[in-house]
Amino acid sequence: MAKIANTENLESLFVKHFNKEVQKIEKLPLSGSNREYFYMTSDNIECIGTIGKELKENQAFISFSDAFSKAGLNVPKVLAISDDGLTYLQTYIKGVSLFDYLEKHRLSDKNPDNQTVEYYKDVLRNLPKFQTKGIEILDFDKCYPRKSFDSQSIMWDLNYFKYYFLKTTHTVFDEQLLENDFLTLTDYLCKAPSEFFLYRDFQSRNIIIGDDKRPYFIDFQGGRKGALQYDVASLLYDGKAALSPEIRLELLDFYISELKKVLDFNEQEFRKYFYAFVYVRIMQAMGSYGYRGFLEQKTHFLASIPPALKNLEYLLDNHKLDIEIPHLEKCLRALTENENLKNYDSQKSVLTVSVKSFSYRKGIPYDASGNGGGFVFDCRAIHNPGRYEKYKNFNGKDKEVIEFFSKEPEMAEFVALTQKIVEISVKKYIERGFKNLSVFFGCTGGQHRSVYCAERMAEFLRNNYPQINVELFHTEQDKK
After folding, report:
1. d(CA 141, CA 148)
2. CATH class of the structural domain 96-345
3. What does pTM read for this prediction?
4. Which CATH architecture best describes the domain 8-92?
């Protein structure tokens, strides 16, 4: 068996639990998280091995899996856990994701066939069970990172959208006006009844249609208390699933009819808040597309941008909320009118250069593009304005720091040399049709020198190579 790096603990756990050596271990494709999954076999034994770096997140999944399994819900069972809690084995579910099934069974008008719609309905028969039984059986102290989808969680999602999508796409907005609308939307959402289990990432890739034709549910470790509407919004407005408005309405009505079988609730009130949760879910997803796609260069996330914008355009045209959020609506409308974003999927052959500044104290950023690296330039030999009190509250984008470096010949020489080196690769990458190149600048704190150099590199590339896509991110500054 070919060895895969860093799987020794998983293989030891497999041997300890099954009393058999691992015959085959295969790494599964990465998703949106930092967890790693492996398909593991020996004779007639199959399981999934998981490596999770966040202990509390692992504990949430393990606790929820145990509770849901005992309640008879279709979820993977945890078979064994390492002593440190960072690796565990879970049952392997044979089947295909609902998303993959949908993609293979679309009709000529792009709508799903009848069997796919029936699978969606079967999923929606199960959702109320999770939402209502979850409250009875789960230990919500195990939730990670928060026990409920409350005002704090909602604001996290909205700011995630602001910093990782609006800013990375250079969408113009007024910070204070947008913040005001975020608060208005958050207050509105918090009025919806929220004493239910919220799955959090209830979408077609996290639902497996098993070989027995039953739906199975995975990746619920982000679950917490919340409103009923959120998970239905997640499923029906899943960007790349691209369900038509008619199918969405049919499925929404079906879900409501199923919910009535297990819960006495106000249908009018449910529908009143539903589209507000659709908006916030789409914005959360777009924040993820920005972070995972633009910044981490996981390109399959970028393909979700055009369908997400179509969903957004439909909402703006057909489901205006009964609250006043004019600046947020203006920003959302601007996104739907951005031709580059609307056609992003057609830009697969365009070279994307990811320019980042970082702090060596925190380590060199990970290149998630699959390209295997790029350039990392160390700026620490250059005169540091951060040594002087006058500049400590500024960064490399501020005019005070820019003026400081304009008087430093070594900075001018350094910038010119790095641009010349990178330009050699850019020309060759364009010529050969390569898609990704990373250029990272590091200094001690990621505040002055690295930020200044990254700004100059991005400026140089945009001015001289307008046909490429340049993504600029300051690891320390942009997260604040």
Report:
1. 10
2. alpha beta
3. 0.73
4. 2-Layer Sandwich (3.30)
